[in-house]
Amino acid sequence: MRRFVLHTLIAVLWMFLWGSFKLTTLIAGYIVAYLLLAIIGRRAAALGEFPRAWRAIRFIFYFIRILVVANWQVARLVLDPKMPIHPRIIRYDVSKLTPTQLTTFSSSITLTPGTLSTDLSPDRRWLYVHCINAADRAAAIADLDELQRRLLKGLFS
Asked: For residues 34 and 3, what is the distance between their CA atoms, to the nearest angstrom?
């Protein structure tokens, strides 16, 4: 059942990429999904990396989900005549991240609407993140912790 869902997700993504919502495009998407997963599966089985590839795919879907939610939240803020924003700059501890992990993490933050990695302390311990709407500091830090945890688990473990 899990493989069918994955094939279907790839096939639907294929339809969106082509901008064509016809049965033939869906069938072509299933063929591409089958070939792609067969190649990945064969390579991953040879290298023993299929669980790692699966974790990376899960992170990508998680990141797409937070992008959609963040876009929706920013759109609501912008369209509200009162502009109920609570901007905040958060100092976030990144001392345990390697340079590659730090770059990926800060880029992920900047790609997410409503947040921006603004600066890194000279000792490379603190990342300063601007949030457009962070009335609750603890909740904003919890969101950054969750992004960091999933990023490390999905791409770097």
From this structure: 10
